[in-house]
Amino acid sequence: MRWPIFWIFWALCASQAIPIGFSSSELSHLAGDPVATHKVVLHISKDKADVGSLVLALFGQTAPKTVENFVGLASMAPGYGYHGTIFHRVIKDFIIQGGDFERGDGTGGYSIFDKKSFADENFDLHHDKRGRLSMANAGKDTNGAQFFITTSESSTHLNGHHVVFGQLVGGFEVLDLLNTAPTGENDRPVSRWAIEDADIFVEPPAETGSLGSYRFFMGLCLVSSVCYAAVQWNHRRKKVVITGFRSM
């Protein structure tokens, strides 16, 4: 009966000690960027047909409140958020914009913080590469729910006006499809491009020592498991010897 307990213990250790990481391909898009603390996978559809995912790395140490807001809306934690919302604005070779879960036309949406706007955290990161994830706003300190992803290599005129808090690291083929989507009035796509669902993972940042703590804990679990297995094996061996002696 002790062995099931051992495996339950091991499973709990493993689930707590193994962080969700980024692939080498994904990491290549984060060169020169701060530590990524979260990975968010947005599942995208076109006219309700699945087209793939946008994989985003978030910089929670650089813009913690902005990241908290985005993660909350992506997970639907407050009871509202991005699931089922559309990309209502596409400007080719500039941006794709979404997040207006309230009206779907760029005039609505609000934050997880009492449904109010919140201030710009900082402008430490720049719109200096394709796939930058940044907050849309109606002016200074008016961040709510809407966001955009850049589709050009550089949009420096946005610096100092919009808070960059993430970077696209996967799903560039989906970004290409959105970038070239036919649009109508007010840059609205003709087809319905939507976020159907989202997966959220946390990446323990190596610079804070969290990853080292995870590895230490995992090592401790391994050593404990080996010791436990050795004790159990020896205990069972003794039982066999004693049983054999009594049967003679």
From TrEMBL:
**Signal peptide range in chain numbering:** 1-17
- UniProt-recorded Gene Ontology molecular function terms: cyclosporin A binding; peptidyl-prolyl cis-trans isomerase activity
Checking InterPro entries in the record gives: Cyclophilin-like_dom_sf, Cyclophilin-type_PPIase_CS, Cyclophilin-type_PPIase_dom
Family annotation (Pfam families):
Pro_isomerase
The lineage's top-level taxon is: Eukaryota
Q: Which SUPFAM superfamilies match?
A: Cyclophilin-like (SSF50891)
Matching entries from Gene3D superfamilies are given as: Cyclophilin-like
Q: What does it do?
A: PPIases accelerate the folding of proteins. It catalyzes the cis-trans isomerization of proline imidic peptide bonds in oligopeptides.
Q: What is this protein called?
A: Peptidyl-prolyl cis-trans isomerase
